[in-house]
Amino acid sequence: MRPIRPLLLAGLSAVLATAALGAAPVSKPRPIGEATTQLPGPTPGGGFDLPNGWRITPAGKAVADLGDLVLKMVVSPDGKVIVAGHGGYLPNGLSVIDAKTHKLIQEVPLKTAWLGLAWSGDGHTLFVSGGNANGEKKIEASLAPIYALAYRNGRLDPKPVAEFKDLTVPTEQTWWSGVHSDSKRGLVWAANRGTSMSATDVVAFDARSGAIKRRVHVGVSPYELALAPDGKRLFVSNWGEKTVSVVDIASEKVIKTLPVGFNPNDMVLAADGRLFVACSNENTVYVIDTRTLEVMQVISTALYPKAPEGSTPNSLSLDAKRKLLFVANADNNDVAVVDIAKRETSQVLGFIPAGWYPSALVLGEAGQALYIGSTKGESGHPTLKGPTSPLASKFGGDETIKTLQRSSVERLALAGLKGQLAGWTKKVFANTPYNDALLAEARPPAGPTIMPSKVGAGSPIKHIIYIIKENRTYDQVYGDLPHTNGDPRLAIFGRQITPNQHAMAEQFAAFDNCYADGDVSQDGHSWANAAYATDQNEKSWPANYGGHSQAQNRSLAYMPSSGYLWDAAKRKGLTYRSYGEYATRASTGEPMSSVPGANGLIGHVSANYLQNRVRDTENAKVFLDEFAGYEANYDSRDPEKRLPNYIVMSMQENHTHGTDPKSFTPRAMVANQDVALGQMVERLTHSRYWPQMAIFIMEDDAQDGPDHVDARRTACLIISPYIKRAIVDSTLYTTSSMVRSIELLLGMPPLSQYDAAATPFYAAFGTTADLTGFKGLPAQWDVNEKNSPQAYGARESARMNFADADEAPMHRLNEIIWKSVKGAVSPMPPPVHRYRAVAGPGG
Q1: By the 8 A CB rule, do 540 and 513 touch?
Q2: Region 744-757 average pLDDT
Q3: Residue 446 pLDDT more than 50?
């Protein structure tokens, strides 16, 4: 252990470091934790260590760098090009790759785009689904269409020749997903996945006029379509249910609803009538006999037989010649290779290492190559834009995760597949930190600690309070903390603004190598509470955050099938309560209650804890008033009257409202939250429950600001009598590490592959209790400071939506916050950049 310097000297050092803005970070003493600090970045063998603790070593050659969220790829009927559709945060559209030169030769921008890509029977038209166009960037007629683009000799006409629309459905309820061309009947089928938890329709447009010829009501959030070879039946995967709808074309009715696994998404139909359906939340592919309409087989695509959710199969490609099915396992960063030669017994032969979150597969070059599109690209990503950033200047000077995260396409030659598959499979297993043994026992600690490695072994910690804050990187808060890997130049909310959090880090432990698993709040809160975000979550938030959509599609497909920490607590027989997390209230002002789908929280939500509707000091008072009741009932035999075993709490004021003249300044809001944290931690650490308590504090994500190490490095704290005092722990931790640590301390099993595989916070916990409490510090900044109408970005901030986390355009809000602290003309310092570039247009 290496002690942090006393508070007075540390504070002086931080002030001096912050003042020297132009100076580079100084060398720090080696911290405790791992013998050699593990940082995200390239590996000697050509792979990349991701910020989540997993590794990628793509087997294919990167041929194109696209916009973000590549959802589907198709080969042109003449075989000349591969078209990739991307519909995320960045400008939506299509990328065209030459199948002969393997170069990106064309970009086709579209107002909005999403999953669906389908060729007309003559190969001269590409139909593209327009997603949901009800966002900030909507252009006049905002109803999303199905685009028809002309194709000739390897080029797409960038101007659509037609746009098909369903005028009977409100703009906000239209989200076009899968598309299928029925050339025999001159129809284009399209699935409207909708934007609610209700069932929606698939419709058939006339391929020439765009008139709607047929409409069939199917399940919740229809994703993809597959038409039987005889054209008599249409199969629809219902993403928001565990079903596939079978539509009789003649009667225009659903004749059967087939039960399948959680989150059915991509489908592919074999010539012998087998329909393969990827079920992402179940790590499986269901095989349906389209003649008998029965499920024939369930294929597990996980690496290990007992694996919980976390493989996320979400794209399929069929190789009829080799009789193989390729399955993209997004969260395992691999492609499963399945032998489908025997109709009744398909078998996984092995795995191909892919990029980060493979989400689109297509067989090209007459079956000689597999193209793999990876949503999160080839590597981890740094922070704000700098001289070595791969982004063009048109994306602006302040680049958060959402703009840096770009998709990539790899080309994998299949000629040597049989001879190379064993080696690739071995590499995939080596890249993956998960194995089934971790379900019962985490990896052992390096030294003595009260945190058990075996699930259910018990610990002296009986009460955990888990506080989830909003969107800060490590450097933004702790960049000025001595003896840690921080950059004081980036500490816009340093010691002067967050004296309590700095004091907690110095009295207990500082963690300077912890990374958020989530990208933004929408997936970040799922990661923070479940160590997993479903594919529907991952594929829906980018368009919303990019301003292309304002739809909040909260179907059950958003909910991890294993549930959340409170569900695990319920299964364990523990008491639990939420203060603002996954809670809401109607505009009419009813008390707070659980959000739809979070059924485990029904009856377990603090009614008066109003989340971001009031300041965090007011919410802290609500909690402390309830805590007084728990304290008074300390000796009660009724567990419902005592402090719950597990509490989760949302604190969102550090999100800020930019420079909106009606609101407090960013520094005032962050400072006020710091006061609230100080008040709560002081009270909790001087209570009768303190000897059996641990307080975990974590950001839901880090996408709101710069960091010199990595865009996902974030701020976290743990306060407990058993935390080693005045140390810096530089072990690589993640959001899932925090979830895993909570589970182990309370005797709960892991929820996903990610928390099972994560490194628990072993190194920070000792074996003896130090019951010294924390003394809260007063604010060192005016917590009631208001924004001036003349402040940088004031008018723009006033137009932003701060009703919920991250409803404002975050890339712009981030710049406003920076300039509110550093000055309107202050540019962000350039970062250290670890991006692994791939080929762009012409090279």
Answers
A1: no
A2: 99
A3: yes
Distance, in Å, from the CA atom of 382 to the CA atom of 389, rounded to the nearest integer, reads 9
User: Is the Cβ–Cβ distance between 526 and 537 less than 8 Å?
Assistant: yes
Task: State residue 589's pLDDT score.
Answer: 65
Q: Can you tell me the distance from the alpha carbon of 61 to that of 764, in angstroms, rounded to the nearest whole number? A: 41
Cβ partners under 8 Å of residue 64, min gap 6: 84, 95, 97, 103, 104, 408, 409, 838, 839, 840
User: Residues 574, 600: contact at Cβ < 8 Å?
Assistant: no
Helix (H) / strand (E) element for 526: namely helix 521-530
Give the CA diameter of the chain: 80
Residue 251: DSSP 8-state: T
SS3 assignment, position 299: strand
369-374/408-413 β-pairing: antiparallel
- Exposure pattern of 749-761 as b/e (b: 16+ CB <10 Å)? bbbbbbbbbbbbb
Torsion of CA 499, 503, 506, 510, to 10 degrees: -70
Range with the poorest average pLDDT among 33-42, 194-203, 603-612: 33-42
Q: What tokens appear for 723 in the block?
A: 């935390």
Instruction: Note the helical H segments in 591-637.
Output: 616-632
- Tell me how far CA of residue 355 lies from CA of 154, 331, 332, 360, 398, in angstroms: 27, 10, 10, 11, 26
Q: Is residue 33 very low, low, confident or very high in pLDDT (cuts 50, 70, 90)?
A: low
In 364-485, alpha helices (H): 401-404, 417-431, 474-478
Q: How many CB atoms lie within 10 A of CB 79?
A: 14
* Cα–Cα distance, 11 to 502 (Å, whole number): 9
CA atoms within 13 A on the CB side of 463: 20
Q: What angle do CA 541, 542, 543 make, to 5 degrees?
A: 95
The phi, psi pair for 236, rounded to 5°, reads: -130, 120
Distance CA 633, CA 262 (A): 42
Question: Do residues 37 and 730 lie in contact, with contact meaning Cβ atoms separated by under 8 Å?
Answer: yes
Contact 259, 242 (CB under 8 A): yes
Q: Which of 347, 390, 280 is nearest to 841 (CA)?
A: 390
Phi/psi of residue 465, nearest 5 degrees: -115, 120
Q: How far is 480 from 20, CA to CA, in rounded Å?
A: 11
> What is the average per-residue pLDDT within 176-194?
96
pLDDT in tens, 616-660: 999 999 999 999 999 999 999 999 999 999 999 999 998 888 889
Weakest mean pLDDT among 133-137, 749-753, 774-778, 821-825? 133-137
pTM of the predicted model as reported, rounded to 2 decimal places: 0.92
The Cα 789–Cα 19 span in angstroms is: 28
List of domains in the chain: 55-432 (2.130.10.10), 437-808 (3.40.720.10)
Asked if the model's pLDDT at residue 89 lies above 90, the reply is no
Contacts of 242 (CB under 8 A, 6+ apart): 259, 260, 261, 262, 263, 264, 279
The pLDDT assigned to 797 comes to 83
Q: What are phi and psi of 244, to 5 degrees?
A: -125, 125
DSSP 504: H
